[in-house]
Amino acid sequence: MSVVGFDVGFMNCYVAVARAGGIETVANEYSDRCTPAFVSYGPRNRSIGAAAKSQIVTNCKNTVQGFKRFHGRAFSDPYVQRVKNSLVYDIVQMPTGTAGIKVMYMEEEKVFSIEQVTAMLLTKLKETAESALKKPVADCVVSVSINMLLLQF
Question: How many angstroms separate the CA atoms of 73 and 25, rounded?
Fold first, then answer.
């Protein structure tokens, strides 16, 4: 059994595995040990990580980053209302009252919850770990840092 850990930051993520008597930070498909916390939606596909970050210029309205700060926040939250106008992508209200992200994906307008976008990113991190380990990942530890300057209660 391998021990796998994900460190999910505001703009970047790291994947680490315990092996050979130590902890190793795993490189992604670009041989980079740091995976950008970006998800980009296109007319034919979805890109995550470094591939998504490279689309920030050509597909900015459909490339999301910094979405971690909206976890657990209502759309009516003063922080969400203040920040949403400074974002390139659209933050909208979900039926549950929470914040969601509206994008054009597969040539259709879609609204994803913050949790769905995070799940897409975590799936990418899992694939990176599985590629490095050459076996499936069943369990992992997820570390999420909170920057109090961004919370602004």
Answer: 31
Q: How far apart are CA 75 and CA 100, in angstroms?
A: 8
The first and second tokens of residue 71, run together, are: 């976890």
pTM to 2 decimal places: 0.91
Q: How far, in Å, CA of 8 to CA of 64, rounded?
A: 15
Identify whether the C-beta of residue 136 lies closer than 8 Å to the C-beta of residue 125.
no
CB-count burial class (<10 Å; 0-12, 13-18, 19+) for 67: buried
Closest by CA to 19, choosing from 30, 4, 32, 34, is 4
- C-alpha to C-alpha distances, 93 to 48, 61, 67, 70, 77, nearest whole angstrom: 24, 17, 14, 12, 11
4, 16 Cβ separation under 8 angstroms = yes
Q: Is the pLDDT of residue 149 over 60?
A: no
